[in-house]
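Sequence design from tokenized structure. All designs in this work follow the same two-part layout: the structure record, then the generated sequence. An example of the structure record is given first.
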């Protein structure tokens, strides 16, 4: 069993900073704006060769917001599921009623917990430590998460709490195949993950932009390990928007980069819009395989669905070579087909194709059409071999490395995609020019050739006279 640690506290006390410091990542957004973290976020900390699951939570406080009740619920679930609770308090400020209420609530849970005073680097000090001692707190550690002060002492303290625990599970095995879930705001990404994993890990709301951070949700399906990465919805003008929203976009793209496969969720009730196509182009630039899910299909009747598929945007080239699966996240429709498709595309994207098979296909394609010429010289394809994944790369050795006509490249890509059934898999062709073995070498004449050359020169000189 993996040891788990939950970080709790009121808003803006530095929980996400501590989470990032312990996990040695930047998976949680850190900002002066309070209330950015809403859902539970998972990460892994390695302390003295042992691994711990760290859970970042949203701020618990008396401030009433649209999400406050759900944020509190998520934080308390994390506390209940963990083996150790870190109650983080801002040491630069006096204790608030929220700090005291949360402290007393956690004490009643009969869980292993201790208090961590953060922001001790700030010159302005408070009486928070003395007040906590009066409340009966014995274990108080002082740190600065931002400047790494006291982090080593905190890690040592954590390792002591689990000294008799065994069977630490490797991080890679726990995370398994990573699936980044991408889409516009309010497309149903969090609803889908909650329904698929059968746990209320993510806050769901009709308000677009509820998810700000990228949230990792590990789960097991058919005995295999997977991790969904829920991301913030990408708006049309994210670059001109609030700094937090732009950083959320950066986090979403980072999630795509670290994932094995991308699940693009489109709100079918809105149809295919320009922003969906822009997001698809952004994703495909990373070379990862993509599966598209048309969500909220329950809101469309047969005629609306037919009209949707006949629109120009639905038939856009960005969607042509992708697999589209119809689902309803709310009613759990199409989940089995979708996940079977994801597993199939992921397997294809990791397949290493043999050189013999690729060369047979290349010969077939080049014989089926006239090979174009460059500057009067016909392109000659010598041989092809596999070059890597994400994207799948085929390296073709020919007499030209550049200036290959784009339409011919597209013909070869489409041909390989069709023959190898690579729908949803990004395919890249790289042309390499063969080296000339005599390049740079001077042609040396034999003794007989030298004598013949001299006789010819002598003969030419005589004839000129």
């Amino acid at each position: 069993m993996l040891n788990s640690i939950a970080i709790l506290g009121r808003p803006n006390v530095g929980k996400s900073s501590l989470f990032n410091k312990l996990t040695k990542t930047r998976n949680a957004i850190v900002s002066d704006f309070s209330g950015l973290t809403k859902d539970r976020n998972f990460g892994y900390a390695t302390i003295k060769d042992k691994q711990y699951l760290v859970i970042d939570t949203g701020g618990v406080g008396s401030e009433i917001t649209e999400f406050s009740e759900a944020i509190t619920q998520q934080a308390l679930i994390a506390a209940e599921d963990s083996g150790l609770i870190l109650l983080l308090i801002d040491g630069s400020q006096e204790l608030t009623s929220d700090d005291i209420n949360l402290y007393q609530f956690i004490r009643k849970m009969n869980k292993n917990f201790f208090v961590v005073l953060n922001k001790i680097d700030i010159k302005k000090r408070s009486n928070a430590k003395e007040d906590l001692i009066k409340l009966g707190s014995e274990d108080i550690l002082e740190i600065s998460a931002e400047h790494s002060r006291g982090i080593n002492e905190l890690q040592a303290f954590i390792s002591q709490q689990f000294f008799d625990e065994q069977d630490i599970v490797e991080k890679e095995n726990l995370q398994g195949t990573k699936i980044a879930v991408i889409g516009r705001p309010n497309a149903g990404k969090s609803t889908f993950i909650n329904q698929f994993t059968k746990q209320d890990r993510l806050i769901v709301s009709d308000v677009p932009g509820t998810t700000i951070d990228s949230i990792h949700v590990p789960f097991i399906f058919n005995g295999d390990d997977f991790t969904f990465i829920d991301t913030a919805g990408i708006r049309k003008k994210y670059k001109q928007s609030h700094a937090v929203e732009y950083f959320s976009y950066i986090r979403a793209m980072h999630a795509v980069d670290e994932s094995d496969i991308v699940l693009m969720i489109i709100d079918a009730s809105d149809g295919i819009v320009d922003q969906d196509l822009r997001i698809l182009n952004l994703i495909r630039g990373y070379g990862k395989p993509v599966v598209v899910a048309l969500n909220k299909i329950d809101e469309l009747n047969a005629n609306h669905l037919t009209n949707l598929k006949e629109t120009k945007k639905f038939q856009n080239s960005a969607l042509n070579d992708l697999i589209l699966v119809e689902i309803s996240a709310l009613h759990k429709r199409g989940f089995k087909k979708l996940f079977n498709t994801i597993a199939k595309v992921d397997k294809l994207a990791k397949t290493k194709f043999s050189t013999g098979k690729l060369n047979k296909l290349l010969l077939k394609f080049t014989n089926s059409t006239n090979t174009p010429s460059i500057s009067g010289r016909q392109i000659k394809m010598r041989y092809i071999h596999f070059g890597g994944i994400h994207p799948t790369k085929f390296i073709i050795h020919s007499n030209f490395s550049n200036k290959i006509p784009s339409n011919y490249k597209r013909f070869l890509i489409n041909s390989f995609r069709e023959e190898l059934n690579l729908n949803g898999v990004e395919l890249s062709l790289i042309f390499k020019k063969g080296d000339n073995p005599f390049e740079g070498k001077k042609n040396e004449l034999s003794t007989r050739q030298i004598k013949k050359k001299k006789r010819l020169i002598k003969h030419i000189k005589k004839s000129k006279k």
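DSSP finds 15 helices and 17 strands in the chain. We note this feature because it recurs in several other targets discussed in the main text.
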